[in-house]
Write the structure tokens for this entry.
Amino acid sequence: MNSKKNILIGITSSIASYKIYELIRLYKKNNYNVKVVLTDNAVNFVSTLVLETLTENEVYFKQFSPRTNVEHINLVEWADIFVIAPISANTISKCAQGIADNLLCSIFCAYLSTKKPILMAPAMNTNMWNNPIIQENIEKLKKLNVDFVNPESGFLACKTSGIGRLANIETIYEKSLRNIFQDKKNNNKKIIVTLGGTKEAIDNVRCISNFSSGKMGKAICKWAYRKGFDVLAISTVELENVPYNFINVNTAEEMLNKIESNDDFDILIMAAAVCDFKAKNKSEKKLIKENIDNEFILELVKNPDLIKTIAQNKKNNQKIIGFCLTDDDYINRAKEKLKNKNLDYIIANEVNIALNTDKNKVTIIEKSGKIINMDLDTKDNTARKILEVVCD
């Protein structure tokens, strides 16, 4: 499916233009088709040869081509999304006023009528960004359903610090895919995803944990965001440069508390590997090896059953999805867990396939008893397929 999506990138004259090489690389790595259109002055900041090499396509910057004078129409028809990054204050103002004096602006004016998504990522000096005329033009474009990735604060090319730096490339990438794949019916729905393996302290240095990498949960968060949900990740692993909200936790009880304090969710997907047990008596100081005999007895007590606790109080409009990871008889064990914990769906998978790898093979079992078997696939594709089932 990805290979059928066409990304048209517009580059304007900005010192940040070179960063778009990395954006193109991300699209191509994930099998999207990419074409680039430049403003007249953007050719001073990027190499057309490099862009053509990266995209494997011609780069467009002439308003009127010797071959055809309707290049802007052809590119509009070809594209599934128009990403203008970086976009300068000058081009923002031209687009807002409907001025079409170069190829990029001509494409924008024609593209508006298609209702296909447009994403702009500004980059400029702080004073230019704060200029009331620029802000007025941005608001005008937003009313035309143009989406924005706002610039970040940082050290700028003009040797000052402030807002104006081009947004993180991964943020632009994910926001563009959200514009392509989102289902409008999800826009006001909140989804919570737990991920990673919880950690239960033995002393102030050591802990009980597991080998969960959080990769499956990260993939679910990513595709939930792309599909238009308001995503909250409750995670034991670090999340960087993600476009959705997240809370870091360590223990099972911390995770439970955060879910309960955000109980206005529509969907809860418990992808985290929660430790079943914790130390009965945690030492407040590091245990000294020399003070311990050859044997050390660690008493454990059960942790609360997070998903069962939450499911007991779920509202009629809420869906709760669990995971069941085991070595053998995983389908029957998943069915039992689905029933005993009052879940809407459960996702069964095997330890030797799923744990700490980039691939997964899952079976989705619905409350009605319907079973959906999925082939071995990347966790990214698996996450997408899971969401298509459980969020229907």
